[in-house]
Amino acid sequence: MTTSLPAEVESHRQPDHEINPQFLTRWSPRSFTDQEVTEDVLLSLFEAARWAPSSSNLQPWRFIIARTPEQRAKFYNFIMPGNREWCEKAPVLTLVISHTKTPKGGDNPSHAFDAGTAWGYLALEANNQGLITHAMGGFDRNQAREALQIPEEYDIHAVIAIGYRGPVSALDEKFQEREIPSSRRELSELLFGGDFGQTL
To answer: What percent of the chain is helix, strand and coil (3-state, nearest 5)?
Structure first.
């Protein structure tokens, strides 16, 4: 099902097996415009995340969304300076968290796995809607918890910048050479047959 790809994607990403092109065209640029994301388009991303699978259908993921200047300023306070340099242009920031407990109060060992799946759904739908996303791990989780009043039973995973793609030239020079779709390991490095380390 893989069809022709944009030139910048095709030069860096070639699948060994036929897949939907959405998996190749979704990548993580850093250059954003300040164009507003309308509410209906934005909510479609979280609608996609809503339908992600989860263990026992617990749906542990939650998203804290910052759209106003005041809300985004709260996020800037706990995002590392290197990420702030480019993410401050993004019109939407989102913090991904997940509930670590089951309804009976026990530990949910799958909460992070499930939240990651929801983020993946969100990222693919953003790409379908003509948006870009960039997930960041470079932020202070303790500061985020305090600033956003996040209860202890929620784990904090990533900040996601969401918006429309801007020109590469708008980035600081140190980011410009990195503004390309990343490649991936060979499939043979990721698959084992029967036991760990065994060739498939």
So the answer is: 40, 20, 45
Please state, in angstroms and rounded to a whole number, the distance separating the CA atoms of residues 105 and 108: 9
CATH topology of domain 29-178: NADH Oxidase (3.40.109)
Q: In 3D, which of 13, 17, 33 has the Cα closest to residue 25?
A: 13
- pLDDT tens for the chain, 200 residues: list them: 656 799 999 999 999 999 999 999 999 999 999 999 999 999 999 999 999 999 999 999 999 999 999 999 999 999 999 999 999 999 999 999 999 999 999 999 999 999 999 999 999 999 999 999 999 999 999 999 999 999 999 999 999 999 999 999 999 999 999 999 999 999 999 999 999 999 99
Domain boundaries, the chain: 29-178
